[in-house]
Amino acid sequence: MKPLSLVAFVLVVVGALNWGLVGLAQFDLVAALFGEGSVLSRIVYSLVGIAGLGLLALQATTLTSGAPRTQQRA
Hints:
The longest helix has 27 residues, at 39-65. The protein has 74 residues and is mainly α. The protein has helices spanning 3-25, 29-34, 39-65. It has one domain (3-65). α1 (3-25) packs across α3. It is 76% helix and 0% strand. The chain starts with a helix and ends in a 9-residue tail after the last helix.
């Protein structure tokens, strides 16, 4: 897995866990760690959203090509 894809995957998992906590326990972990409405919280939320869009695009290319993309070596 490429490093950028790994970072995106981790961010999406963090986001999913955070939303799970919000839904099940009404506890926002990101807000608890960085402050509700703080600049840092907004950055984390933005990065999670961007990572989700990136993985969505990657998945879309995988579905349309029928096979996962492979990294070509020079």
